[in-house]
Amino acid sequence: MIKTAILLATLLSFIKPEEIKFEFEGEDITNVLLFINRSVNKCLVYKKSEDRNEFFENIKCPQFLRPIKITQCSAVFEFLFYGKKYAIKTYARSRKTKRCEEEIVTQLKHKNVIEVYATYSAITYNRYKKKNEQVFWIISEYLNLVIDYKYMMHDEHRLRVFCRNVCEGLIYIHKKGVAHLDLKFGNLMGNIDENGVVQYKIIDFGFSRYCNKNEEIHLPKKYYGTYPFEPPETYFKSIYTQKSDIWCFGAIVYFTACKRGLFYTNGERDYDMYESFLTGNLKHEFNSSASEELKDFVLSCMKIYRHDRPSARKLLNHPFLNVDI
Hints:
There is one protein chain. About 30% of the residues lie in helices and about 25% in strands. By secondary structure, the chain is of the alpha+beta class. The chain has two domains: about 30-140, Phosphorylase Kinase, domain 1; about 145-320, Transferase(Phosphotransferase), domain 1, CATH 1.10.510. Strands 1-5-6-4-3-2 form a six-stranded antiparallel sheet. Helix 2 runs antiparallel to helix 3 (about 50-55), helix 6 (about 155-175) packs antiparallel against helix 8 (about 240-255) and helix 8 packs antiparallel against helix 10. The radius of gyration is 20 Å and the shape is globular. It holds the Pfam family Pkinase. This is CAMK protein kinase. GO terms for molecular function: ATP binding; protein kinase activity.
């Protein structure tokens, strides 16, 4: 039943740049998607993330597949196809859930946004959950540089290049009427070319929504975003806007330049501390090495009242970024 469903998988979108001389179609890709679906379903049986990750890392894959990352709701594999690496992301959802990722990503084409080549969808039977699910697979470019705060710390030149790239990506998606809604280190990656030049890109549009410049989305029964990157309006009121992305962007930069590890106590989330910060009672604390321009950039992004935050386009002209790099 599963194989039949996948053989009938609907190709939702296919983008074939001139340099790509093949299509992701036929029995070969069907078997790859089938293998990924079965493997991920087995992993998700484990409720504890440690057990789930261990099982995922030890999946016995064909030589052209390698497990990269798994969460409670999605997984990513490296896929080697005719000598070139790609990434395959998969996730399942209820048909009632209104997610837009597979539709949004096929409409985005920008140097600072991950490039998607194809998306597939099928209704499959999950024998572990004993129910039908709508499963999606997204085939995209493979990015070879993982970003975290340690990579950016104590190097304002690198941070400035990174911020300009992310800012240009945000300008583009916001102009397209899309809000990302989950900007964090884990959703920003880089690609190092043969000359050693890094291009930073926004990835993973799993929480993204269509949202125009002045539009506000109220989702009282939904919770998007990741601790501790959520802006005040999201954390307290479940309000989502393009300006929510600006706060998250500022938080990313702040965590590279803050004085100490924040919002965790003894390894546990400190919600009291975080709420004090979101209401303005706990102030920003920067490393002594942080420039005044960097501090002002962060404070501009992380204004408590969302309407006071600049747009991504205005941020690109901020003194911290308005330097010849």
